[in-house]
Specification:
The structure is a homodimer of 458-residue chains. Chain A has 458 residues and is of the alpha+beta class. Chain A contains 13 helices and 19 strands. In chain A, a hairpin with a 2-residue loop joins strand 4 and strand 5. In chain A, helix 1 runs antiparallel to helix 3 and helix 4 runs parallel beside helix 12. At the A-B interface, strand 10, strand 11, helix 5, helix 6 and helix 9 of A face strand 10, strand 11, helix 6, helix 7 and helix 10 of B. Strand 12 of chain A pairs antiparallel with strand 12 of chain B, so a sheet runs across the interface.
Chain lengths: 458, 458
């Protein structure tokens, strides 16, 4: 990074932090209707800030819900890559308030961390992008890449507006790749890039075995019990080591390059520590694939809820007529949600006990998995930028999560996403005392200065 | 039945029905605290009525809860049998009120039925005992048997006071057998006696697989899932035909006399009708034992509630750390609750997946099964009385239910129970528009006149 960037950042540091604190003071909680004015304030704050740092065509775009703030810099021309930058200005509710050491919307610097709701999810990480754009534009008067920035206001809401917005604005948003600030490093002091995300597909079904709940004194011994049928059916979904037992489930999984798995030894990870951390007697799914591979690059099927019959205190001797189950799969590689859902439904129908009627109550083909090729030029640019920002070798990892926007831009705009965020898994996103390390704010900003000033290859 | 009884019943009919209607007007709902004054009114009404019909030592006995009304007639002497008669004066709540065609506490005669909350459970059937005692005492001036009548006020409440009361009053309540008015005929126009009741044992357990719920994006593939463990464990409880797969579960079951099973062809019953009535695709547990035998004389294990994880709308991609299940067994013949619970716990522990920790949250050794020998003299007396009351052959059947008082008097007083009630399974006990057939009120009263006037053998 050139001395001129360093000098600008040093001079701007206090002002930029003040700006971030102003942004963090806005309680832009999208899930609570009474905060609608704060949502508007946050959108306006972002709009104003994009103008202040010199982006063009800055405006609020209607979505049918909370507006998306848009800004661009397209002077790099058609030979330079165009990057679609993503962040969100809405935050989670702060409850339970009594667990916060300092008020969630009074950002506080303490022990090298900025404590505030939204500090890490996603106001702080997004701010590294804004501070870096400001720096490069101020120092160089331009960027070597084209950028289009969208900052949405419904990430915590999981509304469908972003999907429709992307579908309707393909031309405006056309880009070579998406760069997502709403992601995290592997761990503190580990500059790192997640090369893939798992996809997701979910469904809920019910089993019915009779017209009404029946009394077990009267009908016990002849009446089918929906809970018995449910147990029998669910028990067919996994083998005893926790591997998915649905035929064909693993067919589209590709083995990872062995050199990538070999690199993972550089990552701080210990399987036994993980087991102790989550309080488990044993980890499941073991055997051929190591824990990191199972969490990042293998598909899963997890039950999220099962219920039926009487759940109150004591006993009610009912033979329940119906039972329900919710489940989802994490998808990897070439797996797509719709065929996986079809496979699952076929398995459920085949193994449904004959006394039960199976109804798929809903399906949710949530997201396709996404993989960023490790040899993509943009990945190399990001890796070099991280090494500049953090002063040490950057590592590749993968993520087991599904990031909805990555799936949406893949589906609607046909582009992959680079996950370049600076939060930590331990920052307390969605929890009390959410925070963002000042070190990650500073290093992240330097990383993004290096990235924006060198992103000349697609 | 002698002409003098007939004449008395004819002359008393209108007055007796008025008395029953007065009794039915009292909303003696034991489960709702605001009805405490009505509970007191009902106890007082029964007390007064026992005095009016000529019982002795009539009084309210304290239980720690609602009082038990007591009355006796012990002039028959030590060679005559002593019968402990049982009924209850409390009723279920009447909600939902809008489903009643006439108000629940304004007894209404319609289409040969008396509609009121408590009409069949248990005010009407108990009243047949009271009307019969009044008749025999009025006509003969005495009874050929000794009777001790207890009418409790907490049957719908399932409190423990009756148990303690029986345990503390063994001498006062000493008897050769209990006669329970709180039971039903096999069907309309089928005078019948249930020779056995199933017992009951219940438990609730939980499985735990981690210290907290975990996110399936982060930990899916390595974290054990309590719902998967629960499904695997519950699936070991039954075979695919619904028979209990716990080793030793059926060991204490005795085969029924083949002549008894042969008699059941006289009972109106059709397996296919039952299947259609309950809306089942098929009945379970088939094979060696016919449906009536499975409902009456075979033990069962039914899950009553299973739950864990997220049950709200939509999806929450959690890996649940715990799951819960409630179940109970119906017991027959020589099965006792405690050993059955021990057998169950052993099975659960043996089959609990290694990633889960099993905790038995509670057990409820609810009731021993009870069988009345079909050749007992009291059974013969009751059968003959039923034939007099109904003018047709009386049949034996069995009941799959557990009647708590029968188990309690067996445990505390060491006596078996004769189930001699006149309600019908279709009377709507606990439901809106509960009713009691006038025909069963009249025939039941005649049956009990015949019974009390001829119960001279133990």
């Amino acid at each position: 990074m050139t001395a001129r960037y360093e000098q600008y950042l040093a001079e701007a540091a206090e002002r930029q932090r003040e700006a971030l604190f102003d942004y963090l003071r806005i309680p832009s909680i999208s899930t609570l209707p009474e905060h609608a004015p704060d949502i508007a304030d946050a959108a306006e704050w972002v709009r104003g800030h994009l103008e202040r740092i010199g982006l063009r065509e800055v405006r609020l775009l209607e979505t049918g819900g909370n507006p998306i703030v848009y800004g661009e810099w397209l002077d790099a021309g058609p030979d330079a890559p165009t990057l679609l930058l993503y962040g969100h200005y809405d935050v989670q509710p702060a409850e339970p308030l009594e667990l916060w050491e300092t008020p969630p919307f009074e950002p506080t610097l303490r022990d090298g961390r900025i404590y505030a709701r939204g500090a890490t999810d996603n106001k702080g990480p997004l701010f590294t992008y804004l501070a870096a754009l400001e720096t490069v534009l101020a120092v160089d008067g331009t960027l070597p890449c084209n950028v289009k920035l969208i900052v949405e206001g419904e990430e915590e809401l999981r509304a469908d507006h972003l999907d429709a917005f992307l579908a309707a604005n393909g031309e405006l948003l056309a880009a070579d790749a998406c760069v997502i600030s709403d992601s995290a490093l592997y761990a503190r002091d580990v500059p790192s890039i997640a090369l893939s995300l798992r996809g997701m597909a979910a469904l809920q079904f019910r089993l019915e075995t009779a017209a009404t709940d029946l009394h077990s004194g009267m009908y016990g011994g002849v009446a089918p019990n929906a809970l018995h049928a449910m147990a029998r059916l669910l028990a067919t979904l996994h083998d005893e080591d926790g591997r998915v037992a649905v035929p064909g489930f693993y067919d589209a999984v590709r083995p990872l390059p062995s050199e990538e798995i070999a690199e993972w030894v550089s990552l701080p990870f210990d399987e036994e520590e993980l087991r102790v951390e989550i309080g488990a007697r044993r980890l499941i799914g073991g055997g051929e694939h190591a824990a990191l591979e199972r969490m990042w690059a293998r598909p899963t099927l997890d039950l999220h809820g099962v219920w039926g019959g009487f759940q109150g205190e004591g006993i009610k001797t009912v033979i329940p007529r119906e039972a329900h189950a919710k489940l989802s799969c994490r998808l990897v590689a070439d797996m797509e949600p719709e065929p996986v859902l079809a496979l699952l439904e076929e398995h459920l129908r085949r193994h449904c006990p004959p006394e039960a009627e199976l109804t798929i109550e809903w399906t949710l083909p949530g997201a396709s998995p996404m993989t960023m090729p490790r040899d993509a030029p943009l990945v190399a640019t990001a890796r070099a930028a991280l090494e500049q920002g953090y002063g040490r070798e950057a590592l590749f990892f993968r993520s087991g999560w599904s990031v909805p926007v990555a799936a949406l831009v893949k589906a609607r705009l046909g582009i992959d996403s680079l996950l370049l965020g600076f939060g930590l898994p331990t920052d307390g996103a969605h929890a009390p005392n959410e925070h963002f390390d000042v070190a990650n704010l500073e290093r992240g900003t330097r990383t993004m200065v290096a990235f924006f000033s060198s992103a000349t290859r697609r």
